[in-house]
Design a protein that fits this description.
Layout: H1 7-11, E1 17-19, H2 28-36, E2 41-44, H3 50-63, E3 68-73, H4 79-88, E4 93-97, H5 102-110, E5 114-119, H6 122-131, E6 136-139, E7 145-146, H7 152-162, E8 167-170, H8 176-184, E9 189-192, H9 194-197, H10 206-214, E10 220-223, E11 231-234, H11 237-247, H12 252-259, H13 262-267, H14 292-314
Parallel strand pairs: 1-9, 2-3, 3-4, 4-5, 5-6, 6-8, 8-9
Antiparallel strand pairs: 7-11, 10-11
Helix pairs in contact: 2-3, 3-4, 6-7, 8-14
Bound molecules: flavin mononucleotide (FMN).
């Protein structure tokens, strides 16, 4: 396999910054703005039908000719059809979430697609590397949305040691300091989700953005641990209700009934009380709404400033 100098060369982007695929949040508007700004924008397919994804790809291509990707949740009932769409549309990069994409690897590789699975363990990282993945996103439990158990600080270096493909760190990274730390842990790039929820181009209802901006370091909670699929969100009425029901031996069905449609409720309807305000712990670092390109520049410049100050301190 070709040895790539870094992730920017592999992905054809300017900055080693990937905008994480975010169900309902990262449609073509946000993904196009991130790609046009020199990062890698990802359209989240989530559990949307294949035709919707095709429409999003066409719409993005009207705005930018820069590289972009589609994030495909492997548990989506439409995953097979969406894989066909990304191949027929020649989408350059596919990121996968929630599982092992091995069964799709041959068709994606044949089409020349770069495949980047999201993993929460070094075991899965090794498995997807063997299957032919080009890079992995190691996502720690500080992240927003569905999470694993291990923190970014611990997961990233262990995944770096376990595989020889480039590792992109995710979970808790929202500024140059976090990005610099991830590189020191051995990552070759960073994936950012939470900070992009408040990007100007993100089609997210204002009450959701406002809650992310107002949040502090202690304002997220994890629900659904008992289901095996824990989710991190901002505390609100819905999450408090779920947490109190969980203490009373809530069933999986009851949990699903309470959660169904709640991310849409937050993103589209702006219901900050009973919508699911998925967000990572880095919400406490997010202070304002900004264009995506400005967010990317701020992270990149912040990272450079960290390196400059450390070089001054250590003398080289
Ligand atoms: C609202 C929201 C929705 C998300 N949806 C998805 C998704 O559909 N697929 C996926 O692989 N990851 C999803 N994620 C995870 C992000 O892609 C990203 O890895 C994570 O947000 C990075 O951590 P951070 O939130 O600390 O920046 C989601 C995260 C958030 C906040």
């Amino acid at each position: 396999m070709k040895e790539y100098k870094d992730i920017t060369e592999l992905l054809g982007i300017c900055y080693p910054i990937v905008q994480g695929g975010m169900a309902w949040v990262s449609d073509f508007h946000l993904a196009a703005a991130v790609s046009a700004g020199g990062g890698l924008g990802l359209i989240a397919a989530a559990s949307a039908p294949a035709d919707w994804v095709r429409g999003q790809i066409h719409a993005l291509r009207k705005i930018t000719d820069k590289p972009f990707g589609v994030n495909i949740m492997l548990m989506s009932p439409f995953a097979d059809e969406i894989m066909q769409v990304v191949v027929s549309e020649k989408v350059p990069i596919v990121a996968t979430g929630a599982g092992n994409p091995s069964k799709y690897m041959d068709m994606l590789k044949e089409a020349g697609t770069i495949v980047i699975p999201v993993v929460a363990s070094s075991t899965l990282a090794k498995r997807v590397e063997r299957a032919g993945a080009d890079a992995v996103v190691a996502e720690g439990s500080e992240a927003g949305g569905h999470i694993g158990e291990t923190t970014t600080m611990n997961l990233v270096p262990q995944v770096v040691d376990a595989v020889s493909i480039p590792v992109i760190a995710a979970g808790g990274i929202a500024d140059g300091r976090g990005a610099a730390a991830a590189f020191l842990l051995g990552a070759k790039g960073v994936q950012v989700g939470t900070r992009f929820i408040v990007a100007k181009e993100a089609n997210v209802a204002q009450p959701y953005k406002d809650r992310v901006i107002a949040a502090g370091d202690n304002d997220t909670v994890v629900t659904g641990r008992f289901t095996g699929h824990p989710v991190r969100s901002l505390k609100n009425k819905l999450m408090r209700e779920i947490l109190s029901q969980e203490k009373k031996d809530m069933s999986l069905e009851e949990f699903e009934t309470l959660m169904i449609g709640t991310l849409r409720k937050a993103v589209v309807e702006g219901d900050a009380d009973y919508g699911s305000l998925m967000s990572g712990q880095s919400a406490g670092l997010v202070t304002k709404e900004q264009p995506a390109a400005e967010i990317i520049r701020d992270i990149a410049e912040g990272m450079k400033a960290v390196y400059r100050s450390k070089a001054a301190y250590f003398g080289d």
